[in-house]
Amino acid sequence: MAYVRHRWSAYFCPAIQTNILKMKNLTNQIVTRTNFPRQNTKPGQLIMKIALLLFFLTAFLSTGHAQIRIDTSAYVKDNKQLYSVVVSQNDKVVFSRYFNGKTDTTLYNNQSLTKSVMSLLMGIAIDKGYIPSVDEKIVKYFPQLSEDTDKRKQNITIRQVMNQASGLWHEDVRNMRQYLTLQDPTGYVLKQPLVSEPGKVFYYSNAGTHLLSAILTKATGMTTLEFAQKYLFGPLGIQHVHWGKMNDGYYDGCGLYSVEMTTADMNKIGSLLLHKGHYNGKPVVPKKWIAELLNPSIFYNTPWGFEGSTYALCFYHYNYDGMPVTYGLGWGGQFVFVIPAKKAVISVNESIDNATAIKSSNLFLEKIFPVIYQQLN
Fold it and tell me: What is the pTM of this model?
Protein backbone atom coordinates (compact mmCIF):
# COMPACT_ATOMS: atom_id res chain seq x y z
CA MET A 1 0.00 0.00 0.00
CA ALA A 2 2.87 2.37 0.72
CA TYR A 3 4.16 1.99 -2.82
CA VAL A 4 0.74 2.58 -4.36
CA ARG A 5 0.17 5.69 -2.25
CA HIS A 6 3.58 7.10 -3.17
CA ARG A 7 3.19 6.44 -6.86
CA TRP A 8 -0.26 7.99 -7.29
CA SER A 9 -0.39 10.75 -4.71
CA ALA A 10 1.05 13.28 -7.14
CA TYR A 11 -1.98 12.84 -9.37
CA PHE A 12 -4.53 13.78 -6.72
CA CYS A 13 -5.58 17.41 -6.37
CA PRO A 14 -5.08 18.92 -2.87
CA ALA A 15 -8.76 18.54 -1.95
CA ILE A 16 -8.67 14.81 -2.67
CA GLN A 17 -5.40 14.41 -0.76
CA THR A 18 -7.01 16.13 2.23
CA ASN A 19 -9.97 13.76 2.11
CA ILE A 20 -7.65 10.75 1.90
CA LEU A 21 -5.78 11.96 4.98
CA LYS A 22 -9.07 12.48 6.85
CA MET A 23 -10.22 9.02 5.81
CA LYS A 24 -6.96 7.46 7.02
CA ASN A 25 -7.19 9.20 10.41
CA LEU A 26 -10.84 8.28 10.88
CA THR A 27 -10.12 4.69 9.84
CA ASN A 28 -7.32 4.42 12.41
CA GLN A 29 -9.56 5.86 15.12
CA ILE A 30 -12.47 3.55 14.34
CA VAL A 31 -10.34 0.44 13.94
CA THR A 32 -8.53 1.24 17.20
CA ARG A 33 -11.82 1.63 19.05
CA THR A 34 -13.47 -1.42 17.47
CA ASN A 35 -13.06 -4.68 19.33
CA PHE A 36 -13.11 -7.35 16.67
CA PRO A 37 -13.55 -10.84 18.18
CA ARG A 38 -10.08 -12.17 17.40
CA GLN A 39 -10.77 -15.85 18.04
CA ASN A 40 -13.89 -15.98 15.86
CA THR A 41 -12.93 -13.56 13.07
CA LYS A 42 -11.24 -15.02 10.04
CA PRO A 43 -8.78 -12.88 8.01
CA GLY A 44 -11.24 -12.68 5.10
CA GLN A 45 -14.01 -11.43 7.35
CA LEU A 46 -11.73 -8.80 8.84
CA ILE A 47 -10.73 -7.58 5.39
CA MET A 48 -14.39 -7.41 4.37
CA LYS A 49 -15.25 -5.34 7.44
CA ILE A 50 -12.39 -2.92 6.76
CA ALA A 51 -13.43 -2.64 3.09
CA LEU A 52 -16.99 -1.81 4.09
CA LEU A 53 -15.69 0.70 6.60
CA LEU A 54 -13.61 2.42 3.95
CA PHE A 55 -16.59 2.46 1.58
CA PHE A 56 -18.83 4.24 4.07
CA LEU A 57 -16.05 6.64 5.05
CA THR A 58 -15.56 7.55 1.41
CA ALA A 59 -19.27 8.24 1.02
CA PHE A 60 -19.25 10.29 4.24
CA LEU A 61 -16.27 12.41 3.25
CA SER A 62 -17.29 12.95 -0.35
CA THR A 63 -18.02 16.60 -1.09
CA GLY A 64 -20.60 15.67 -3.74
CA HIS A 65 -19.01 18.15 -6.12
CA ALA A 66 -16.61 17.91 -9.02
CA GLN A 67 -12.92 18.66 -8.54
CA ILE A 68 -12.14 20.91 -11.50
CA ARG A 69 -8.63 21.39 -12.87
CA ILE A 70 -7.89 23.35 -16.04
CA ASP A 71 -4.73 25.22 -15.08
CA THR A 72 -2.43 22.68 -16.72
CA SER A 73 -4.16 22.94 -20.09
CA ALA A 74 -2.03 24.71 -22.70
CA TYR A 75 -5.19 26.42 -23.92
CA VAL A 76 -5.42 28.08 -20.52
CA LYS A 77 -1.80 28.63 -19.49
CA ASP A 78 -0.86 30.56 -22.63
CA ASN A 79 -4.23 32.23 -23.15
CA LYS A 80 -3.89 36.02 -22.95
CA GLN A 81 -7.58 36.58 -23.65
CA LEU A 82 -8.98 34.47 -20.80
CA TYR A 83 -9.87 36.49 -17.70
CA SER A 84 -12.00 34.33 -15.42
CA VAL A 85 -13.81 31.02 -14.99
CA VAL A 86 -16.24 30.24 -12.17
CA VAL A 87 -17.92 26.83 -11.91
CA SER A 88 -20.67 26.03 -9.43
CA GLN A 89 -22.26 22.65 -8.89
CA ASN A 90 -24.94 21.64 -6.41
CA ASP A 91 -25.03 25.28 -5.28
CA LYS A 92 -21.34 25.32 -4.32
CA VAL A 93 -18.48 27.04 -6.15
CA VAL A 94 -16.15 24.19 -7.10
CA PHE A 95 -13.76 26.17 -9.29
CA SER A 96 -12.83 29.84 -9.38
CA ARG A 97 -9.77 31.14 -11.25
CA TYR A 98 -8.69 34.54 -12.54
CA PHE A 99 -6.06 35.19 -15.18
CA ASN A 100 -4.01 37.95 -16.76
CA GLY A 101 -4.18 40.28 -13.77
CA LYS A 102 -7.95 40.05 -13.22
CA THR A 103 -9.47 39.37 -9.79
CA ASP A 104 -12.73 38.26 -8.20
CA THR A 105 -13.72 41.91 -7.74
CA THR A 106 -13.25 42.92 -11.38
CA LEU A 107 -16.45 44.07 -13.09
CA TYR A 108 -16.41 42.52 -16.55
CA ASN A 109 -17.88 43.84 -19.78
CA ASN A 110 -20.47 41.13 -20.44
CA GLN A 111 -21.45 42.30 -23.92
CA SER A 112 -24.53 40.35 -25.09
CA LEU A 113 -24.94 38.55 -21.78
CA THR A 114 -26.78 41.81 -21.14
CA LYS A 115 -29.55 40.38 -23.34
CA SER A 116 -29.85 37.34 -21.08
CA VAL A 117 -30.14 39.61 -18.03
CA MET A 118 -32.81 41.60 -19.87
CA SER A 119 -34.67 38.36 -20.55
CA LEU A 120 -34.97 37.63 -16.83
CA LEU A 121 -36.11 41.20 -16.16
CA MET A 122 -38.81 40.92 -18.83
CA GLY A 123 -40.04 37.70 -17.24
CA ILE A 124 -40.25 39.40 -13.84
CA ALA A 125 -42.10 42.38 -15.35
CA ILE A 126 -44.63 40.09 -17.00
CA ASP A 127 -45.18 38.17 -13.76
CA LYS A 128 -45.77 41.38 -11.82
CA GLY A 129 -48.30 42.63 -14.34
CA TYR A 130 -46.27 45.53 -15.75
CA ILE A 131 -46.29 43.86 -19.17
CA PRO A 132 -49.34 41.75 -20.18
CA SER A 133 -47.47 39.10 -22.18
CA VAL A 134 -44.32 38.33 -24.11
CA ASP A 135 -46.58 38.32 -27.17
CA GLU A 136 -47.65 41.93 -26.54
CA LYS A 137 -47.21 44.11 -29.63
CA ILE A 138 -44.50 46.75 -29.26
CA VAL A 139 -46.70 49.42 -30.88
CA LYS A 140 -48.26 49.80 -27.41
CA TYR A 141 -44.95 51.28 -26.22
CA PHE A 142 -44.01 52.99 -29.47
CA PRO A 143 -47.27 54.49 -30.81
CA GLN A 144 -45.40 56.16 -33.67
CA LEU A 145 -45.42 52.77 -35.37
CA SER A 146 -49.14 53.15 -36.00
CA GLU A 147 -48.29 56.00 -38.39
CA ASP A 148 -45.57 54.09 -40.25
CA THR A 149 -46.37 53.30 -43.89
CA ASP A 150 -45.20 49.71 -43.35
CA LYS A 151 -48.15 48.33 -41.40
CA ARG A 152 -46.23 45.11 -40.63
CA LYS A 153 -44.38 46.99 -37.89
CA GLN A 154 -47.62 47.24 -35.90
CA ASN A 155 -47.64 43.46 -35.47
CA ILE A 156 -44.10 43.07 -34.14
CA THR A 157 -44.18 41.45 -30.69
CA ILE A 158 -41.85 41.51 -27.70
CA ARG A 159 -41.18 37.80 -28.28
CA GLN A 160 -40.04 38.48 -31.83
CA VAL A 161 -37.66 41.16 -30.58
CA MET A 162 -36.26 38.75 -27.97
CA ASN A 163 -35.97 36.00 -30.58
CA GLN A 164 -33.97 38.20 -32.98
CA ALA A 165 -36.77 37.71 -35.47
CA SER A 166 -38.47 41.12 -35.40
CA GLY A 167 -37.31 42.08 -38.88
CA LEU A 168 -36.08 45.41 -37.49
CA TRP A 169 -33.03 47.17 -38.83
CA HIS A 170 -29.65 45.79 -37.81
CA GLU A 171 -26.72 48.10 -37.18
CA ASP A 172 -24.04 45.49 -38.19
CA VAL A 173 -20.33 46.05 -37.67
CA ARG A 174 -19.95 48.60 -40.45
CA ASN A 175 -22.56 50.90 -38.92
CA MET A 176 -21.76 50.24 -35.27
CA ARG A 177 -20.02 53.52 -34.54
CA GLN A 178 -22.67 55.48 -36.39
CA TYR A 179 -25.39 53.75 -34.37
CA LEU A 180 -23.68 54.47 -31.05
CA THR A 181 -23.45 58.17 -31.87
CA LEU A 182 -27.16 58.50 -32.60
CA GLN A 183 -28.99 60.77 -30.18
CA ASP A 184 -32.16 58.69 -30.50
CA PRO A 185 -31.15 55.10 -31.32
CA THR A 186 -34.59 53.80 -30.27
CA GLY A 187 -36.45 56.12 -32.62
CA TYR A 188 -33.95 55.50 -35.41
CA VAL A 189 -34.33 51.71 -35.52
CA LEU A 190 -38.14 52.01 -35.54
CA LYS A 191 -38.05 54.35 -38.53
CA GLN A 192 -35.79 52.20 -40.69
CA PRO A 193 -37.19 49.82 -43.33
CA LEU A 194 -37.68 46.23 -42.19
CA VAL A 195 -34.97 43.79 -43.28
CA SER A 196 -37.28 40.76 -43.18
CA GLU A 197 -40.83 39.67 -42.46
CA PRO A 198 -41.44 39.86 -38.66
CA GLY A 199 -41.36 36.44 -37.02
CA LYS A 200 -40.00 34.63 -40.07
CA VAL A 201 -36.23 35.07 -40.13
CA PHE A 202 -33.48 35.04 -37.48
CA TYR A 203 -31.65 38.32 -38.06
CA TYR A 204 -29.51 39.39 -35.13
CA SER A 205 -30.15 43.01 -34.17
CA ASN A 206 -28.54 44.75 -31.22
CA ALA A 207 -30.46 47.87 -32.18
CA GLY A 208 -33.71 45.94 -31.99
CA THR A 209 -32.90 44.30 -28.65
CA HIS A 210 -32.15 47.67 -27.05
CA LEU A 211 -35.89 48.36 -27.38
CA LEU A 212 -36.44 45.94 -24.48
CA SER A 213 -34.89 48.42 -22.08
CA ALA A 214 -37.13 51.19 -23.37
CA ILE A 215 -40.20 48.94 -23.08
CA LEU A 216 -39.30 47.94 -19.52
CA THR A 217 -38.83 51.57 -18.49
CA LYS A 218 -42.06 52.72 -20.13
CA ALA A 219 -44.04 49.83 -18.62
CA THR A 220 -42.73 50.03 -15.04
CA GLY A 221 -42.00 53.72 -14.57
CA MET A 222 -38.54 52.70 -13.32
CA THR A 223 -35.24 52.75 -15.11
CA THR A 224 -33.96 49.34 -16.15
CA LEU A 225 -31.25 49.52 -13.50
CA GLU A 226 -33.71 50.52 -10.77
CA PHE A 227 -35.99 47.64 -11.71
CA ALA A 228 -33.05 45.21 -11.79
CA GLN A 229 -31.75 46.35 -8.41
CA LYS A 230 -35.18 45.94 -6.83
CA TYR A 231 -36.24 42.62 -8.32
CA LEU A 232 -33.08 40.81 -9.51
CA PHE A 233 -29.74 42.12 -8.26
CA GLY A 234 -31.01 42.86 -4.75
CA PRO A 235 -32.49 39.41 -4.08
CA LEU A 236 -29.29 37.79 -5.42
CA GLY A 237 -27.05 39.94 -3.22
CA ILE A 238 -25.40 41.54 -6.25
CA GLN A 239 -24.13 44.89 -4.99
CA HIS A 240 -21.53 46.01 -7.51
CA VAL A 241 -22.83 46.67 -11.01
CA HIS A 242 -22.05 49.18 -13.71
CA TRP A 243 -24.57 49.58 -16.52
CA GLY A 244 -24.02 51.96 -19.42
CA LYS A 245 -26.70 54.10 -21.06
CA MET A 246 -27.40 54.78 -24.70
CA ASN A 247 -27.75 58.36 -25.89
CA ASP A 248 -31.54 58.12 -25.67
CA GLY A 249 -31.22 57.90 -21.87
CA TYR A 250 -32.24 54.24 -21.61
CA TYR A 251 -29.87 51.74 -20.07
CA ASP A 252 -28.29 49.59 -22.77
CA GLY A 253 -30.58 46.64 -23.46
CA CYS A 254 -28.36 44.78 -25.89
CA GLY A 255 -24.77 44.76 -24.63
CA LEU A 256 -22.98 47.40 -26.69
CA TYR A 257 -22.41 49.37 -23.49
CA SER A 258 -23.09 46.33 -21.34
CA VAL A 259 -24.09 45.46 -17.81
CA GLU A 260 -20.84 44.87 -15.94
CA MET A 261 -20.51 42.64 -12.88
CA THR A 262 -18.22 40.01 -11.40
CA THR A 263 -18.03 36.55 -12.91
CA ALA A 264 -19.31 35.05 -9.66
CA ASP A 265 -22.38 37.30 -9.76
CA MET A 266 -23.14 36.25 -13.33
CA ASN A 267 -22.91 32.67 -12.07
CA LYS A 268 -25.66 33.49 -9.54
CA ILE A 269 -27.85 34.73 -12.36
CA GLY A 270 -27.29 31.49 -14.25
CA SER A 271 -28.22 29.48 -11.16
CA LEU A 272 -31.78 30.83 -11.35
CA LEU A 273 -32.34 28.58 -14.36
CA LEU A 274 -31.39 25.54 -12.27
CA HIS A 275 -33.86 26.29 -9.49
CA LYS A 276 -37.04 27.34 -11.28
CA GLY A 277 -36.20 30.99 -10.65
CA HIS A 278 -35.46 30.56 -6.93
CA TYR A 279 -32.37 31.72 -5.06
CA ASN A 280 -31.69 30.46 -1.54
CA GLY A 281 -35.17 29.01 -1.56
CA LYS A 282 -36.89 32.32 -2.37
CA PRO A 283 -38.60 33.10 -5.70
CA VAL A 284 -36.89 35.73 -7.85
CA VAL A 285 -37.91 34.94 -11.43
CA PRO A 286 -41.28 33.23 -12.08
CA LYS A 287 -40.88 29.49 -12.62
CA LYS A 288 -43.22 29.66 -15.61
CA TRP A 289 -40.80 32.04 -17.32
CA ILE A 290 -37.80 29.86 -16.46
CA ALA A 291 -39.63 26.86 -17.94
CA GLU A 292 -40.16 28.81 -21.16
CA LEU A 293 -36.50 29.84 -21.26
CA LEU A 294 -35.32 26.25 -20.86
CA ASN A 295 -37.85 24.82 -23.34
CA PRO A 296 -38.95 27.63 -25.66
CA SER A 297 -42.02 27.09 -27.78
CA ILE A 298 -40.55 29.09 -30.68
CA PHE A 299 -36.85 29.07 -31.57
CA TYR A 300 -34.50 29.72 -34.46
CA ASN A 301 -31.27 28.23 -35.74
CA THR A 302 -28.24 30.40 -35.08
CA PRO A 303 -24.92 30.47 -36.96
CA TRP A 304 -22.68 30.91 -33.90
CA GLY A 305 -22.01 29.46 -30.48
CA PHE A 306 -21.88 25.65 -30.40
CA GLU A 307 -22.47 24.48 -33.94
CA GLY A 308 -26.13 23.56 -34.28
CA SER A 309 -27.37 25.83 -31.50
CA THR A 310 -30.82 27.40 -31.47
CA TYR A 311 -31.87 30.76 -30.06
CA ALA A 312 -34.94 31.96 -28.18
CA LEU A 313 -35.76 34.72 -25.69
CA CYS A 314 -32.14 35.91 -25.50
CA PHE A 315 -30.66 32.47 -24.69
CA TYR A 316 -28.97 29.79 -26.77
CA HIS A 317 -29.70 26.06 -26.63
CA TYR A 318 -27.57 23.04 -27.49
CA ASN A 319 -27.36 19.35 -26.70
CA TYR A 320 -23.81 18.68 -25.55
CA ASP A 321 -22.92 15.01 -25.27
CA GLY A 322 -26.65 14.30 -25.25
CA MET A 323 -27.40 16.72 -22.42
CA PRO A 324 -29.31 20.01 -22.81
CA VAL A 325 -27.25 23.14 -22.24
CA THR A 326 -28.84 26.58 -22.08
CA TYR A 327 -26.35 29.41 -22.35
CA GLY A 328 -25.82 33.11 -22.77
CA LEU A 329 -23.13 34.33 -25.14
CA GLY A 330 -21.41 37.68 -25.46
CA TRP A 331 -18.82 39.00 -27.92
CA GLY A 332 -15.28 37.81 -27.27
CA GLY A 333 -16.19 34.83 -25.09
CA GLN A 334 -18.48 36.04 -22.34
CA PHE A 335 -20.48 32.98 -21.33
CA VAL A 336 -22.88 31.62 -18.77
CA PHE A 337 -23.63 27.92 -19.31
CA VAL A 338 -26.45 26.20 -17.44
CA ILE A 339 -26.33 22.38 -17.41
CA PRO A 340 -29.39 21.10 -15.53
CA ALA A 341 -28.43 17.40 -15.69
CA LYS A 342 -25.13 18.21 -13.98
CA LYS A 343 -26.69 20.80 -11.65
CA ALA A 344 -23.88 23.06 -12.81
CA VAL A 345 -23.32 26.63 -13.97
CA ILE A 346 -20.15 27.81 -15.73
CA SER A 347 -19.54 31.55 -16.08
CA VAL A 348 -16.70 32.94 -18.16
CA ASN A 349 -15.23 36.32 -19.06
CA GLU A 350 -12.65 37.03 -21.73
CA SER A 351 -11.17 39.97 -23.60
CA ILE A 352 -13.49 41.86 -25.93
CA ASP A 353 -10.66 42.85 -28.28
CA ASN A 354 -12.15 42.75 -31.78
CA ALA A 355 -8.94 41.29 -33.23
CA THR A 356 -9.21 38.12 -31.12
CA ALA A 357 -12.89 38.01 -30.13
CA ILE A 358 -14.15 35.30 -32.47
CA LYS A 359 -11.04 33.15 -32.13
CA SER A 360 -10.99 33.25 -28.33
CA SER A 361 -14.72 32.53 -28.11
CA ASN A 362 -14.40 29.49 -30.36
CA LEU A 363 -11.31 28.31 -28.49
CA PHE A 364 -13.23 28.21 -25.25
CA LEU A 365 -16.14 26.33 -26.80
CA GLU A 366 -13.96 23.80 -28.60
CA LYS A 367 -11.04 23.26 -26.20
CA ILE A 368 -11.68 24.55 -22.68
CA PHE A 369 -15.39 23.83 -22.18
CA PRO A 370 -14.89 20.09 -22.90
CA VAL A 371 -12.15 19.90 -20.24
CA ILE A 372 -14.46 21.41 -17.61
CA TYR A 373 -17.51 19.43 -18.70
CA GLN A 374 -15.68 16.09 -18.48
CA GLN A 375 -14.77 16.79 -14.86
CA LEU A 376 -18.33 17.50 -13.74
CA ASN A 377 -19.81 14.57 -11.79
Answer: 0.83
